[in-house]
């Protein structure tokens, strides 16, 4: 019995040591080394875009959920646009490039709508920047149009993938 207990303790110690070594080994290969030599140019560009987005999202809260939502979403959407631009330059897969282009168009359209809403409600914002993409007639609309807006007067909504233009 003593011999079996000793073997069990030894086996457990070996298992723990092996697990600790494996975790240390995995940790070294997960990009936590002091040198990120494996970063590709695209990865570096994505990281810059992400860091800028996080910096731009650090805006003071107003206490108004309608305003705060838009103030947070504008830089979030701009971050998506910036990352999509990296994909447009670097991605090799046609579907990835098409998705990136769609993201640029839709996120910019939504930024424009949110900025317009903020202006119409008397909210002043720091310089958010100029539009980065021209919005075409096939922009996707995921929500009902806000009553009384120019968009509502424009007409029907476009269904993604339908190929049908806005009317």
Quick structural summary:
The protein is mainly α and 167 residues long. It has helices at 2-28, 41-56, 65-90, 94-120, 150-154. Helix 2 packs antiparallel against helix 3 (65-90) and helix 3 packs antiparallel against helix 4 (94-120).
Helix count equals 5
**Rounded radius of gyration (Å):** 25 Å
β-strand amount: under 5%
- Please report the distance between the alpha carbons of the first and last residues: 84 Å
Helix content: 55-70%
Output the structural class: mainly alpha
The run of helices and strands is HHHHH
Mean pLDDT: 69
Instruction: Let me know the number of strands.
Output: 0
Tell me which oligomeric state these chains represent.
single chain
Shape: flat
| Largest sheet, strands/sense/barrel | none
- The parts where pLDDT drops under 50 for at least 5 residues are 7-34, 127-144, 149-167
Structural key phrases:
flat, 5 helices
List the helices and strands and how they pair.
Layout lengths: L1 H27 L12 H16 L8 H26 L3 H27 L29 H5 L13
Helix pairs in contact: 2-3, 3-4
What do these coordinates show?
This protein has 167 residues and is an all-alpha fold. It has a domain at 50-56 and 64-124. It has 5 helices and no strands. Helix 2 packs antiparallel against helix 3 and helix 3 packs antiparallel against helix 4 (94-120). The longest helix has 27 residues, at 2-28. It is flat, with a radius of gyration of 25 Å.
